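REQUEST FORM: STRUCTURE PREDICTION
Request ID: SP-0412
Submitted by: Lab K.M.
Chain count: 1
Length (residues): 135
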Amino acid sequence: MAKILIIDDDESVRNYLVAAISRKGHETVPAATCQAGLALLDDPSVQAVVADLFLPDSPPPCDWVAQLKRHAAGRPLILITGEPSEELAAQVRCGEIAAFLSKPFELAFIHKLLERALADPAARGAAPPDAQGSP
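STATUS: Completed
RESULT:
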């Protein structure tokens, strides 16, 4: 299975994602800040990233996404947001990010996104999820 980096400042969300993703057999690496997440992303064994779009120590969203993409170096990037936008959907469509999760999200949806992102790099930007967080 894959090693997944989870970056979220909300401890309950981070713990939920760690538990949910671990149950599917993936190894998880949690981080509470953008700086800690970027440092952990330097580990080449990390195969995908699930990151909150808004963190207390992150730069503006566009800059944060650019930093994540640069450090991810082609690895799937799934963003978490309570404020989905057409801009995020456009980034999914053009393959810049694998997908985004709208809060609140469902466990089954997280698993589907990870399976799709890890299985087929060409499918990363294939079909954006709707604003309700369903495929």
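NOTES: The chain has one domain: 3-119.
Reviewed by: T.R.
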